[in-house]
Amino acid sequence: MKDFASLARLDAMAQAELCARGEVSASELYDACLARIDALNPLLRAVVTVVRERPEPAKPGPLSGVPFLVKDVIPWPGLRWSMGSRLFANNIAPTHTPYGDRLVEAGLVCAGKTATSEFGLLGSTETLLEGVTHNPWDLGRSAAGSSGGSAAAVAAGLVPLAHASDGGGSIRIPASVCGLFGFKPSRGRTVPAALASSDFGDMTSDHCISRSVRDSALFLSITEDRSDGRAVGFVRDPIARKLRIATWTRTLMGEEPEPAVRRAYDDSVALLTELGHTVEPIAPPALDGAALGDAFFIVAGAAIAGVVDMMDRMRGEPVQRTELEPFTWALVDTFLARGPEALPRARASFAEGVRAYNEATRAYDAILTPTIATEPWRIGHLSPILSREELIARTARAVGYTPIQNIAGCPAMSVPLHFPDSGAPIGTHFAAAYQADSVLLGLAYQLEAARPWKDRWAPYSIPRL
């Protein structure tokens, strides 16, 4: 068999092909994955649960025998399901969701769970339950969040891809700062990954973080909801037509990106122009960024208030302040203090924002912006022990491009086009109209061919070490 380091260089499809040809066994793939986790996870803290027992033989499927990791926000039978919270530190998932069933049917083998911020609320993966997840490109920087564990694991070569979820940028932003491909599908594109619903859950898309575009496209075809006749299937090829792409750089709060981010953005515009696409600067959509940000955290607070109420009733005693992080409690307290009209007002703000966004972008095939407005942040910058006001202000400054696609239900992606000489990578963000997922995947293939990134490995990764 190939050694565990050389296997780390292969994407999921390449590993599956080796296995199908009999050049490596599924057991060898799994043992190599565990060896890689043992080698680097004590440093990175990307994986919070490791499955040590040899798995049952994988089902025959397009990714049969390939080990992967699941973000610890969805259940996986028999594994701890903490959602990054001390409240659920000892919670064991009883069953799969339809999403998990699809992954098993595809032959994927779960090697464990990855770290997340508490309930996926913050843009840095550092919790009072699990500690800090480090970015393999720079250990002093965050792997971002809330899918930071999945991004760090893939960037380090522990697995070729990992499940992730995105409620406001939580796939795209970790992918950006870890030099990976991060795609957020349209709302409703995939089968359900959650056991319960909420306004916050409705904004959240489940997918994966990967090194290659083809892995992401195949993963989407595996998990796609095929019941409504709008499935895109496995998108395999670069887009064959020239696109009309709208672009702006101002964030939701009306601020411009930092110089390093602007340079990466300008480089992406030049690349798209070289590829023959028309890139048109336009005025940003007339969005009330402050109102949308407030509505976003009200919706999040409502979801967590529902969890707290459920646990109060199930246990017969109140959830204690020590069981949730300070920021999480602050969201709950703010939601409850606003009264019964808080959620309807938040929904109204969302509806107005979606109307303005769709009006501004309707004439274009795709939208181009930076993924984040600042250079990748240091550990502690978005710590959950900071005050609600400070965290929301810092989040608004850094994460000013990605939430509107969750609110509107549109597909979006971060593509790893810029790798500075030092520090962490800076991704480029693209979005398209609702259900136009195939347009973005086709563009991603084209960008991957024009500016290959598969051999760009982080300093703290298996291939580099």
Q: Per the principal axes of the C-alpha atoms, what is the gross shape?
A: globular
Provide the gyration radius in Å.
21 Å
CATH H-level name of the largest domain... which superfamily? Answer: Amidase signature (AS) domain
**Biggest β-sheet description:** 8 strands, mixed
Which class do the helix and strand fractions yield? alpha+beta
What is the number of strand segments? 15
Q: Could you please describe the fold and organization of this structure?
A:
- Helices cover 38% and strands 15% of the residues.
- The strands form four sheets. Strands 8-10-9-14-15-13-11-12 form an eight-stranded mixed β-sheet, with helices on both faces. Strands 1-3-2 form a three-stranded mixed β-sheet. It has a two-stranded antiparallel ribbon with strand order 4-5.
- It is α+β, with helices and mostly antiparallel strands and 465 residues long.
- It has 15 helices and 15 strands.
- 55% of the residues are buried.
- The model has no long low-confidence stretch (mean pLDDT 97).
- The protein has two domains: 4-288 and 349-450, Alpha-Beta Complex (Amidase signature (AS) enzymes); 289-347.
In brief, what are we looking at here?
The chain has 465 residues and is of the alpha+beta class. The chain is built from 15 helices and 15 strands.
Write the layout of secondary structure elements.
Elements: H1 4-8, H2 12-20, H3 26-44, E1 47-50, E2 67-71, H4 98-105, E3 109-114, E4 126-127, E5 131-132, E6 134-135, E7 138-142, H5 148-155, E8 161-166, H6 172-178, E9 181-184, H7 199-202, E10 205-210, H8 213-223, E11 244-247, H9 259-274, E12 278-281, H10 289-315, H11 326-338, H12 342-361, E13 366-370, H13 388-398, H14 403-408, E14 412-418, E15 426-431, H15 437-450
Parallel strand pairs: 2-3, 11-12, 11-13
Antiparallel strand pairs: 1-3, 4-5, 6-7, 8-10, 9-10, 9-14, 13-15, 14-15
Helix pairs in contact: 10-11, 10-12
